[in-house]
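Dock guanosine-5'-diphosphate; give full complex structure.
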Amino acid sequence: MASSLSEELTMNASATPIPVKIVVAGGFAVGKSTFVGSISDIDPLTTEAAMTKASEEVDDLGDATGKKSTTVAMDFGRVALSQELVLYLFGTPGQDRFHFMWDELVRGAIGAVVLVDTGRLEHCFPAIDYMERAGVPFVVAVNAFDGVLRHHPEDVREALDIPEHIPVLVTDARHRAAVRDTLVGLVRHAMSVAATNA
Amino acid sequence: MTESNDDSFRSFRVRPYLLTGGRTRAAVDLPLEALVRTTESGHASLATQSRERHQIITLCASPQSVAEISAHLKIHLQVARVLVGDLVQEGHVATHVASTQSTTDRPDLRLLEQVLDGLQSL
Ligand SMILES: Nc1nc2c(ncn2[C@@H]2O[C@H](COP(=O)(O)OP(=O)(O)O)[C@@H](O)[C@H]2O)c(=O)[nH]1
Ligand SMILES: [Mg+2]
């Protein structure tokens, strides 16, 4: 019994693609869901997690008092990169109080795309702060709403005080090719980070 | 769909942990993106499975992430993890996240190169 089970597991492991993950962060309504939807093979899905301040409190969630717990919803998409490789794209939940979920999102991730709306530059500060502190490779991508870029990327870099080694890119969340190029930019950046750390 | 979408809130179960007998910790550590696939033993066990376990085993005939299982079954992520963890331990599904592979580490250069190739061929 035990040997046939392990045989099955081995068989299935070899037939299952490797999952990789990229996080899409940024302020509210900056275009995160649009960005994910533009490249996803599937209609973006939503997963919900119960929110707790400390993990010990999780034990209270299912108790008979029916105590209401807060949940956080995250939308995500899936892109088949090859037979062996599948990419998941997760949009971060907006509010700061959901940052506990970000730890989960960035765990093992290739890195993050921090979307910026040039009309509301300051909205991306929490995301940039978070990625810097968590040591997550990231690029800043200026979403050109309606194809109009109101600020040059280098002006955005200066305004946001983004260090030299972090790429500041231009994207268009509604266009698949632009989204793909932004992801390529992130992966190249993650490779240079990985090469530096190796 | 965003965190402000009220419909998606309502569609999820109110007391999620009833499904897991109150357990909140999964037997296996599963990242959101961990791919789950049904085993032959899982297929063979279908007739005897409860509703949610049945749904997971059916869904994962083609590999699905834990996040997808949660989304399709409309169960909380933590609940999906507990149910999948049980099924892994029982051999009804298998997951690709090997115990030798660290889940906190970033993908290595070789994997990143494959990702780059994949993206560029889209
Ligand atoms: N005109 C235009 N609208 C956009 C663009 N990106 C997003 N939107 C719209 O802005 C709103 C917020 O986008 P969404 O992707 O939901 O933002 P999120 O809150 O960051 O997920 C939606 O109504 C989108 O259709 C863009 O590049 N151009
Ligand atoms: Mg959104």
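Observed: The pocket of guanosine-5'-diphosphate (ligand 1) is lined by residues A 26, 28-34, 91, 143, 145-146, 172-174; B 2 (CB under 6 Å).
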